[in-house]
Fold each of these.
Amino acid sequence: MNFLTHLSFSVFHLVLTGAGIFLVVCAVLAFIGWAGPFLVATFYPVYFVTLKPFVWAIQKLFQSRCPQCKGFFKRKMVDYDISDEREVLRTINRVDQGTLFSRTLFEPNQTIEINRQEQVVFVEKTILNHWACKDPLCDHKWTTEEIIDHEGSLT
């Protein structure tokens, strides 16, 4: 057996050993319940830096299309109408935070946090956006619906 084939077998076994060690570490972490945070801490930053900008760019690219001629960057907003506006009740979670100050010099202050549920009035607006194609040969017009809500009342 010559030197290069021996070296290639050694590298192959080294890679298999490294992959095996990684799988054993992941299995041990999964057994003790740390695999989820370990995998999130390892792979989410890689996804966020490499893949997420491409996903965002492709979504924006396809949002700018005309549905009839399928041309990119052909959409322009002509007008919008508020078609519906109403009050709705929703139950939301609130967190109240505060500080209890100590009465003595060397006793530390205590922070408190109270979680509670509250029914709040929200205003829901249904907006109809009217779009047109920028291409004069297509001249397609279409409408999309958008729902916006905020805390408050109509009066």
Amino acid sequence: MKPVQATLIGVALASVLVLTAQADAPEDIAARILQAQDEQSLLATWDNWHPDATHRVILKYGMGQADDVFSYRIGDVTNAEDPELVKALEGYTETARSAPQITARSEDDVRHVTAVTQVDYDWQGYAGKMRQTDEFVFEPFQGGTVIRSLTTTYDYR
């Protein structure tokens, strides 16, 4: 092996190690997604999502009322707001939010990250508590790890 070849191989291996070391852990990606509070910070996380990623939302009300469940493909999201959702959330404000408690596990080589956040809210004069659970599923994609799906449960029971 010539010295030039050995140097090129060494540089290539070092580059791979640097790129691997800089890759975000799924827990870090999930925390960054949960911290994004505005459009700009959400756009900064766009490359952490698989192109066909889905988001499923579950609203649990209790008191015998059926859960609301809906899902959508992340790539189909537009800036348009759903007028029904805006109307339904009139008078809703969060008054406190805990830091998310994040746990991670692997199952059949698939990485799962769960974040649980406690939220105090006021909804049209009623003060209450809600538990938000975000369940991320990650998979390898183009040399990195991306979010394949997210299920968010808002539990008002």
